[in-house]
Design goal:
homodimer, about 100 residues, alpha+beta, Translation Initiation Factor IF3, four-stranded mixed β-sheet, elongated
Protein backbone atom coordinates (compact mmCIF):
# COMPACT_ATOMS: atom_id res chain seq x y z
CA UNK A 1 0.00 0.00 0.00
CA UNK A 2 2.76 2.41 0.95
CA UNK A 3 4.60 1.35 -2.16
CA UNK A 4 1.61 2.19 -4.34
CA UNK A 5 1.27 5.62 -2.76
CA UNK A 6 4.98 6.21 -3.28
CA UNK A 7 4.57 5.25 -6.93
CA UNK A 8 1.61 7.59 -7.41
CA UNK A 9 3.46 10.43 -5.76
CA UNK A 10 6.43 9.87 -8.04
CA UNK A 11 4.33 9.72 -11.22
CA UNK A 12 2.51 12.90 -10.30
CA UNK A 13 4.98 15.09 -12.17
CA UNK A 14 6.08 12.55 -14.79
CA UNK A 15 4.78 12.13 -18.34
CA UNK A 16 5.61 8.65 -19.63
CA UNK A 17 5.67 8.62 -23.43
CA UNK A 18 3.65 5.87 -25.13
CA UNK A 19 2.03 5.22 -28.49
CA UNK A 20 -0.54 8.02 -28.46
CA UNK A 21 -0.08 11.10 -30.68
CA UNK A 22 2.66 13.55 -29.67
CA UNK A 23 0.16 16.31 -28.84
CA UNK A 24 -1.51 14.15 -26.18
CA UNK A 25 1.72 14.21 -24.18
CA UNK A 26 2.25 17.94 -24.81
CA UNK A 27 -1.20 18.52 -23.31
CA UNK A 28 -0.23 16.34 -20.31
CA UNK A 29 2.88 18.50 -19.78
CA UNK A 30 0.81 21.71 -20.12
CA UNK A 31 -1.73 20.37 -17.59
CA UNK A 32 1.03 19.66 -15.07
CA UNK A 33 2.51 23.12 -15.67
CA UNK A 34 -0.99 24.54 -15.07
CA UNK A 35 -0.97 22.81 -11.64
CA UNK A 36 2.41 24.42 -10.98
CA UNK A 37 4.34 21.14 -10.98
CA UNK A 38 8.03 21.95 -11.00
CA UNK A 39 10.08 20.12 -12.16
CA UNK A 40 8.19 18.08 -14.75
CA UNK A 41 9.80 14.90 -16.09
CA UNK A 42 9.26 13.42 -19.55
CA UNK A 43 10.37 9.79 -19.74
CA UNK A 44 10.58 7.30 -22.61
CA UNK A 45 12.31 4.13 -23.69
CA UNK A 46 13.47 2.65 -26.99
CA UNK A 47 12.00 4.07 -30.20
CA UNK A 48 9.78 6.43 -28.18
CA UNK A 49 12.81 8.50 -27.13
CA UNK A 50 12.52 10.63 -30.30
CA UNK A 51 8.92 11.43 -29.40
CA UNK A 52 9.96 12.46 -25.87
CA UNK A 53 12.37 15.04 -27.32
CA UNK A 54 9.61 16.30 -29.66
CA UNK A 55 7.22 16.64 -26.68
CA UNK A 56 9.83 18.60 -24.71
CA UNK A 57 10.65 20.91 -27.64
CA UNK A 58 7.02 21.59 -28.59
CA UNK A 59 6.10 22.17 -24.92
CA UNK A 60 8.78 24.73 -24.11
CA UNK A 61 8.52 26.53 -27.46
CA UNK A 62 4.76 26.81 -27.71
CA UNK A 63 2.86 25.86 -24.56
CA UNK A 64 4.81 26.20 -21.33
CA UNK A 65 7.24 28.95 -22.22
CA UNK A 66 8.09 29.59 -18.55
CA UNK A 67 9.80 26.19 -18.48
CA UNK A 68 13.18 25.20 -19.89
CA UNK A 69 14.99 21.92 -20.34
CA UNK A 70 17.06 21.78 -17.15
CA UNK A 71 18.56 18.36 -17.66
CA UNK A 72 18.52 15.31 -19.93
CA UNK A 73 19.81 11.94 -18.80
CA UNK A 74 19.92 8.54 -20.42
CA UNK A 75 20.52 5.01 -19.15
CA UNK A 76 20.21 1.38 -20.19
CA UNK A 77 17.52 -0.84 -18.69
CA UNK A 78 17.26 -4.59 -18.88
CA UNK A 79 13.81 -5.80 -19.93
CA UNK A 80 12.22 -9.15 -20.62
CA UNK A 81 11.83 -9.49 -24.35
CA UNK A 82 12.42 -11.49 -27.49
CA UNK A 83 15.71 -11.06 -29.33
CA UNK A 84 14.77 -9.94 -32.86
CA UNK A 85 17.64 -11.83 -34.43
CA UNK A 86 17.64 -15.16 -32.59
CA UNK A 87 13.98 -15.27 -31.56
CA UNK A 88 15.07 -16.34 -28.05
CA UNK A 89 13.25 -14.97 -25.05
CA UNK A 90 15.46 -13.38 -22.43
CA UNK A 91 16.77 -10.08 -21.10
CA UNK A 92 17.22 -7.36 -23.71
CA UNK A 93 18.80 -3.96 -23.22
CA UNK A 94 16.79 -0.85 -23.95
CA UNK A 95 17.85 2.79 -23.77
CA UNK A 96 15.79 5.14 -21.63
CA UNK A 97 15.71 8.93 -21.41
CA UNK A 98 14.52 11.40 -18.78
CA UNK A 99 14.03 15.05 -19.69
CA UNK A 100 13.63 17.47 -16.79
CA UNK A 101 11.68 20.68 -17.40
CA UNK A 102 12.06 23.48 -14.87
CA UNK A 103 10.49 26.86 -14.53
CA UNK A 104 12.59 29.98 -14.96
CA UNK B 1 38.00 27.34 -48.58
CA UNK B 2 38.40 28.44 -45.00
CA UNK B 3 34.78 27.58 -44.43
CA UNK B 4 35.32 24.04 -45.72
CA UNK B 5 38.30 23.53 -43.43
CA UNK B 6 36.29 24.85 -40.50
CA UNK B 7 33.53 22.38 -41.35
CA UNK B 8 35.95 19.46 -41.58
CA UNK B 9 37.54 20.41 -38.29
CA UNK B 10 34.14 20.56 -36.64
CA UNK B 11 33.00 17.19 -38.02
CA UNK B 12 36.24 15.54 -37.00
CA UNK B 13 34.88 14.59 -33.59
CA UNK B 14 31.19 14.31 -34.51
CA UNK B 15 29.23 11.18 -35.43
CA UNK B 16 26.08 12.13 -37.33
CA UNK B 17 23.47 9.39 -37.03
CA UNK B 18 21.88 8.19 -40.28
CA UNK B 19 20.09 5.14 -41.59
CA UNK B 20 22.92 2.61 -41.27
CA UNK B 21 22.83 -0.06 -38.53
CA UNK B 22 23.44 1.13 -34.97
CA UNK B 23 26.74 -0.74 -34.69
CA UNK B 24 28.24 1.20 -37.61
CA UNK B 25 27.97 4.38 -35.54
CA UNK B 26 29.27 2.66 -32.39
CA UNK B 27 32.35 1.67 -34.41
CA UNK B 28 32.70 5.29 -35.58
CA UNK B 29 32.66 6.45 -31.94
CA UNK B 30 35.18 3.75 -30.94
CA UNK B 31 37.47 4.81 -33.82
CA UNK B 32 37.37 8.43 -32.68
CA UNK B 33 38.08 7.34 -29.10
CA UNK B 34 41.02 5.31 -30.45
CA UNK B 35 42.39 8.54 -31.97
CA UNK B 36 41.99 10.19 -28.56
CA UNK B 37 39.25 12.60 -29.68
CA UNK B 38 37.80 14.23 -26.60
CA UNK B 39 35.00 15.22 -26.45
CA UNK B 40 33.12 13.17 -29.05
CA UNK B 41 29.69 14.37 -30.18
CA UNK B 42 26.83 12.17 -31.39
CA UNK B 43 24.19 14.15 -33.29
CA UNK B 44 20.82 13.18 -34.74
CA UNK B 45 17.52 14.63 -35.83
CA UNK B 46 13.92 13.43 -35.88
CA UNK B 47 13.27 9.69 -35.60
CA UNK B 48 17.01 9.01 -35.51
CA UNK B 49 17.29 10.55 -32.02
CA UNK B 50 16.45 7.18 -30.42
CA UNK B 51 19.32 5.57 -32.32
CA UNK B 52 21.71 8.30 -31.13
CA UNK B 53 20.88 7.44 -27.50
CA UNK B 54 21.40 3.72 -28.26
CA UNK B 55 24.79 4.50 -29.85
CA UNK B 56 25.84 6.53 -26.80
CA UNK B 57 24.70 3.85 -24.34
CA UNK B 58 26.27 0.92 -26.20
CA UNK B 59 29.51 2.88 -26.68
CA UNK B 60 30.06 3.86 -23.05
CA UNK B 61 28.89 0.50 -21.65
CA UNK B 62 30.80 -1.82 -23.95
CA UNK B 63 33.37 -0.12 -26.17
CA UNK B 64 34.75 3.16 -24.86
CA UNK B 65 34.40 2.66 -21.13
CA UNK B 66 36.77 5.54 -20.35
CA UNK B 67 34.12 7.94 -21.72
CA UNK B 68 30.93 9.12 -20.05
CA UNK B 69 27.95 11.13 -21.21
CA UNK B 70 28.98 14.64 -20.16
CA UNK B 71 26.02 16.49 -21.63
CA UNK B 72 22.90 16.06 -23.70
CA UNK B 73 21.20 18.98 -25.41
CA UNK B 74 18.22 19.27 -27.72
CA UNK B 75 16.88 21.98 -29.98
CA UNK B 76 14.38 22.58 -32.78
CA UNK B 77 15.59 23.16 -36.33
CA UNK B 78 13.58 24.44 -39.25
CA UNK B 79 13.98 22.34 -42.38
CA UNK B 80 12.55 22.38 -45.87
CA UNK B 81 10.06 19.58 -46.10
CA UNK B 82 6.59 18.42 -46.96
CA UNK B 83 3.87 18.63 -44.31
CA UNK B 84 2.59 15.08 -43.86
CA UNK B 85 -0.97 16.23 -43.23
CA UNK B 86 -1.50 18.95 -45.83
CA UNK B 87 1.04 17.82 -48.45
CA UNK B 88 2.26 21.42 -48.74
CA UNK B 89 5.93 22.10 -49.15
CA UNK B 90 7.39 24.54 -46.65
CA UNK B 91 9.40 24.84 -43.47
CA UNK B 92 8.88 22.02 -40.97
CA UNK B 93 10.21 21.82 -37.43
CA UNK B 94 12.40 18.90 -36.45
CA UNK B 95 13.94 18.09 -33.06
CA UNK B 96 17.69 17.56 -32.88
CA UNK B 97 19.89 16.13 -30.17
CA UNK B 98 23.59 16.39 -29.38
CA UNK B 99 25.19 13.94 -26.95
CA UNK B 100 28.64 14.85 -25.67
CA UNK B 101 30.93 12.01 -24.57
CA UNK B 102 33.96 12.91 -22.46
CA UNK B 103 36.81 10.91 -21.05
CA UNK B 104 37.09 10.44 -17.30
Amino acid sequence: MEQIEEQEKKEDNTVLIGKKPTMNYVIAVATMAGSDKNPIFIKARGKLISKAVDVAQISIRRFVKAYKIANMTSATEEMKGIDRKTGHEGPINVSVIAIELRKG
